[in-house]
């Protein structure tokens, strides 16, 4: 309802002081001096009212009467990309989705470049036929370890996922949703490219391998700060492994560590493994694990008649037995 200026002022003057949220903390004081309405509040000296209350009370009061502009905070919606393509014909095989999804990925990467953003997670929804036998959309999630907006890399990842996907029903529409987007600095190509590729290139190769073989089949070393080899050597899924921990440097360590040390026979005071082993290096003494059973060992690098090198240790207690613990490349 529209009111004339004079009528609007009279209506506002009759409103109680509590109509202004900023005046709520001072209602008791205003009531004690007989100021119960907005009109009465306007009659008070402004300087004294500001000292007894706050500057915000005067600002809200002036804005209510239109004497000062009311400033609102703009609501900025978060940047979000979602693209959808309805198919002219049904798709019955997951591999055929690639061409349609490729168009959406191209749109996404253009949107990312325009907003100086990169994506770390995508969700592809494959919508099935509606009706009596309607099904929930099939979902394909793409996750990258590092932010990217490279359409070729995203397309390779998608193809690997689609290769293992079996559709429960024909597809009638494809939707691409950028689930996780973050700001990124502009990337400038180097004048002299790094030999062997950049860290981003190597990360992309790892992501493709993970998509092809599965996250539980690709492992990365996760060293533990412990002198005992069987404790220090740990493996974690490559997509969850953190930065390498403490690693003993300057000492020989085999590429292949046996899960359980193999007891060796001794002939003519020499360890034997298919042939007599010749000691090349050692001993490296390890004494650790007193809190859960001492590991008292002397480690050696040995070689057989064919040139294969092994990592052995000899117990320093009991029968002083020899064990094979690892094989060098």
TrEMBL record:
GO terms for biological process: DNA repair. Keywords: DNA damage. It comes from the Bacteria. This is DNA polymerase. It comes from Advenella kashmirensis.
